[in-house]
Amino acid sequence: MKHTISVLVENEFGVLARVSGLFSGRGFNIESLSVAPTNEPDTSRMTIVTRGDDRILEQISKQLNKLISTIKVVDFTDEEYVARELALIKVTAESDSRAEVLRVVDIFRAKVVDVTPRSYTVEMTGAPAKIDAVIELLTPMGIKEVVRSGPVVIGRGSKGVAG
Amino acid sequence: MTEEAALKLTGSQILLESLRLEGVEKVFGYPGGAVINIYDDLYDSPINHILTRHEQAAVHAADGYARTTGEVGVVIATSGPGGTNTVTGIATAYMDSIPLVIITGQVPTALIGNDAFQEADMCGITRPCTKHNFLVQNLKDLPRMIKEAFYIARTGRPGPVLIDLPKDIQVASMKFSYPDKVNMRGYKPTIGGNERQIGKAAQMILKAKRPVFYVGGGACLADVSPELLEISELLQVPVTTTLMAMSAFPSVHPLALGMLGMHGTYFANMSVTECDLLVAIGARFDDRVTGRIDAFASRAKIIQFDIDPTSIHKNVRVDLPVVGDLKNVLTSLRQQLREKPQEVAELVERTADWRANIEGWKTKHPMGYKPSDTIIKPQYVIERISDLTADDAIITTEVGQHQMWTAQFFKFNQPRTFLTSGGLGTMGYGLPAALGAQVAFPDRQVIDISGDGSFQMNSQELATLVQYRLPVKIAILNNNFLGMVRQWQQLFFDKRYSETCMELPIDFVKLAEAYGATGLRTDKVDEVDSVIQRALEIDGPVLMEFKVCREENVMPMVPAGKGIHEMVLAS
Ligand SMILES: Cc1ncc(C[n+]2csc(CCOP(=O)(O)OP(=O)(O)O)c2C)c(N)n1
Q1: Alpha-carbon gap, residue A27 to B454, rounded angstroms
Q2: Which residues of chain B are at the A interface, by a Cβ-Cβ cutoff of 8 Å?
Q3: Would residue A120 be called left, alpha or beta, if left means φ above 0 and alpha means ψ between -120 and 50 degrees?
Q4: What is the pLDDT of residue A1?
Q5: What phi and psi values does residue A113 have, to the nearest 5 degrees?
Q6: Fewer beta carbons within 10 Å, N or C terminal of chain A?
Q7: Tell me, what's the ipTM?
Q8: Backbone phi, then psi, for B270, in 5-degree steps?
Q9: DSSP label of B381
């Protein structure tokens, strides 16, 4: 089963390698990983999407917690949360398909951020499933390149996940 | 010099001063260009440095020092090859949760990443085999990092911590003050142990019909032998120990079942298979212990006491986990049990049949081997060493058959007297570990029980023993084979002895003499005692070579993929 885990870490030398090395060394799978500093410059947040059964997920959480650089681990799967991902999609847009691309962009409230005579680059932010849908609809037009950020997540409600 | 400058210390001086403040008296190491400043300062430091002949040996020696004293072992090595040579030692300590601080020199910060001379990414290389590691990028961080390194190494589940110290930081200087506290947001080991969970554990134990204690290396690290002995005697619960915990419970105690697992005793493995309650105490359900996992203690409820949350539910589903320092957990458990004399008495009565049953297994298949008058049996040598050495003698081993026989036949009676590479299984561990133990306890007997193969992996340490007058005794059980691998080839590969026969016979006596140590040799059964006695009497390092029965096997044995009750017994 798919799990989305948010990890608060010390923003220090080698911390990404510690986390990714933990996953590869123990044979855990990483579907996506995004990382950036939080509002506190000495703290970074990683959002990791992974898969596994309960036993593996329990190990992933515990092993992440065991890293000295880890401040907090939250598995959001069973909680209320908002997930957003950014995708940049370069799609073929020649005379006959240009209008169709724009229609899809419009329906999903995406944006065209770069235009050439033969292509559009579409920016789309949304829940990962929405991005999957946009990509699916644009595929018949000819996708040249897709760049996805992997989701970032935050819990619903007023409480934050802090150290 | 101005007053200001006088108060300043260089990075390497700060390192040594911090070590001193951590109470470090001995360090093991090997010099080189990237640590030459540290060695220059060592020249007039009160810290005692032991120069091993290989950096791997320096780490094993610090490990032996740590396992016997319970203190943090300290190593210094140079960058590049010095650092990479330490890796096997670090991984060995990591697998067995041994507290070490390893300091490696690094090329100057400006050169890092440039493939500079003797550059190796030590933090990258050791990330998976250290509890934590540090690259010092600013001198101001050095005191804090050292403080944290020692704290991390010795608290929680102990382990090795590496500090990679670039050369420019060793020579830079600043005003030094050593922090008196650590403050790490991400590291707060659970020490206490939840009282309610401990209460539940007491209840489960008091209700059991066929309980067994399964004790692992954590019990040695936490020094809980007295608590363990008292609880098991109070409750009359039999105790089986892993390889790592052989010296945590007296081998000859009536409740002792000996080792369990692949080469465990018949009665330990049967007890674990038949028990209705297994209490894991600082043990992590290693595959060499459990055999086929679904057959392991399959009739039992399982309680697990461990300091490391990741050990729980890792290989086996546990019915009642208790996370905490064993010292606190067992102290509290003992207290709760003492308060229930009636229930304790009932338990002891209820479990009498169970103990009788186990006695039956002991009589049916005791631990043993076929003795011989004509050829030295390796097990016999170990029994004789066991009988002829003092109660507090420290025993180390290498890896292979001799290691298993030591676990099976040596009678341990005091904690922290058995040092062996359990998790990683590192050949070449025993001699340098013995060296480190002897440095820690100059007046105790220290004996490395070795195979002829393993011995040659760190035999250069004979030089260190002689130089520092460390009277370590080495007993090589020479079968001229990589015996353990040969045993597998015999049993599972049709006796095709591929690359396990050591074709070249080594004159180990001459080798010892070349280093200035004493060498003794025998192939006669009736000389075994006199060789051991002479070695123990000689005030200096002695290598004993016993030419033993070449194709002896370690039995019982659980074949790979089988449950531990499906042992092959000695024929
Ligand atoms: C560094 C290392 N290399 C290889 C092995 C695999 N191995 C395990 S036991 C063994 C044979 C050991 O032979 P010896 O030291 O002579 O001991 P014996 O089994 O004969 O008692 C080998 C090669 C190992 N454990 N460690």
Answers
A1: 31
A2: 123-124, 127-128, 131-133, 135, 137, 152, 184-187, 308-310, 312-314
A3: beta
A4: 87
A5: -115, -10
A6: N
A7: 0.92
A8: -70, -40
A9: H
